[in-house]
Amino acid sequence: MSNKPILAGLFTAALLSVAGSVIAQEQVLNLYSARHYQTDEALYGNFTQATGIKINRVDADDAGILARLKAEGAASPADVILLVDAARLGKADMDGLFRPIKSAALEAAIPAQLRAKPSAEGTTWFGFSTRARIVVYNKMRVKKADVDTYEALADPKNKGLLCTRSGAHPYNLSLFGAVTEHLGEVKTEAWLKGLVANMARAPKGGDTDQIKGVASGECGVALTNSYYLARMMRSTDPEDKAAVEKIGVVFPNQQTWGTHVNVAGAGVAKSAKNLANAVKFMEYLASPAAQNYFADGNNEWPAVASVKVNNPALQAMTGGSFKSETIPISAVANNQTKVQQMLDRVGYK
Ligand code: FE
Q1: Distance, CA 287 to ligand 1 centroid (Å)?
Q2: Could you give the domains of the chain?
Q3: Cα–Cα distance measured from residue 198 to residue 99, given in angstroms and rounded to the nearest whole number
Q4: Confidence band for 7, pLDDT divided at 50, 70 and 90
Q5: If you average pLDDT over every residue of the chain, what do you get?
Q6: Distance, CA 289 to ligand 1 centroid (Å)?
Q7: pLDDT digit string (tens) for 238-276?
Q8: I need a labelling partner for 186 at 20 to 30 A (CA). Which of 33, 255, 269, 312 fits?
Q9: Interval between CA 228 and ligand 1 midpoint (Å)
């Protein structure tokens, strides 16, 4: 057997690819992403396979991405910006980092409630997955009926029991922004004051630390995003398993306005150089296959209503379904400056 045909073939392929790069530049997409999950590799790989568009990723946390975009200004190579909270998406929007787009596919797939408020130029950002901000409580110390609404967390009967991460963290800014939509400013500020009065300890750590605080008994009740609890429920670590045994979970406000639901989402960057690719990528994220990867990578729910996930932890947590709030997430995002001022006034660090 001779190797010649193979070598000749490789040589021809090399020539073709050189010719190709002269005729048409390689198709690329520069993605600034605050999401880093294992399933994201498949998510991005499938896009490249289907479109031939190569994805260059800049991975950082949300604050890092926003700082970088500001520093780069109009020279930024960013085409799509992916952030993981409505407050952050709203902040990026207020800072003018997005370019509004018009996409019939996205408008059909993503519920209006889960995207930015459209202007005449189009829509700046779209939510691609949802997460609930839920309550966890220590089953030995607290009765479920005493903590089954957000309002109850500020009730004097729960004094000395509440743990949360910093009030100014985007997850809390979004929740408090939602409560402002539901109750109005005056009642929300009184509520925030009640939360501060009920703290078991000064706010610190992340959501997982609050869950662990509840499990250890240091906290009676805490707020967490649903995926942190789901991650713990799916963990094989004996410590996590033991912690999960000790806690109860509530999807708050099932009898009233529903549980607060936040989004991870994305928008096209203001100075995107690969605009068509950016829109194509956004539309890809709303496709059923991508929705599955996107949601499952972080134990979230797809934003596209027709796409169903099969996640045992989420199933166990909700019993199948729950009532979520129906206010537009863009209104929640836009309340954050107001919320920050209230937090300062009530001393919620
Ligand atoms: Fe998170």
Answers
A1: 23
A2: 26-129+262-310 (3.40.190.10), 130-260+323-346 (3.40.190.10)
A3: 42
A4: very low
A5: 93
A6: 23
A7: 999 999 999 999 999 999 999 999 999 999 999 999 999
A8: 255
A9: 7
Distance (Å) from CA 120 to ligand 1 centroid? 33
- Segment holding 42, helix H or strand E: helix 38-51
Q: Is pLDDT at 14 greater than 60 in this prediction?
A: no
Query: 302, 316, 303, 187: which is closest to 251 by C-alpha?
Result: 316
Q: How far is the CA of 300 from the centre of ligand 1 (A)?
A: 11
Q: Distance between CA atoms of 191 and 196, rounded to whole angstroms?
A: 9
| Residue 18 tokens, joined | 């050189």
Q: Give residue 238 CA to ligand 1 midpoint distance, Å.
A: 22
217, 233 in Cβ contact below 8 A?
no
pLDDT band at 25 (very low <50, low <70, confident <90, very high): confident
Contacts of 5 (CB under 8 A, 6+ apart): none
How far does the centroid of ligand 1 lie from the alpha carbon of residue 40, in Å? 16
* Segment 204-233 mean pLDDT: 98
Closest CA to 44 of 281, 286, 341: 281
| pTM reported for the whole predicted model | 0.91
124 phi/psi in degrees, rounded to 5:
-85, -40
Interval between CA 2 and ligand 1 midpoint (Å): 57
Q: Tell me the CA–centroid distance for residue 87 and ligand 1, in Å.
A: 13
Distance 269 CA to ligand 1 centre (A): 22
Provide the pLDDT confidence category of residue 24 given band limits of 50, 70 and 90.
low
Cα(158) to ligand 1 centroid in Å equals 26
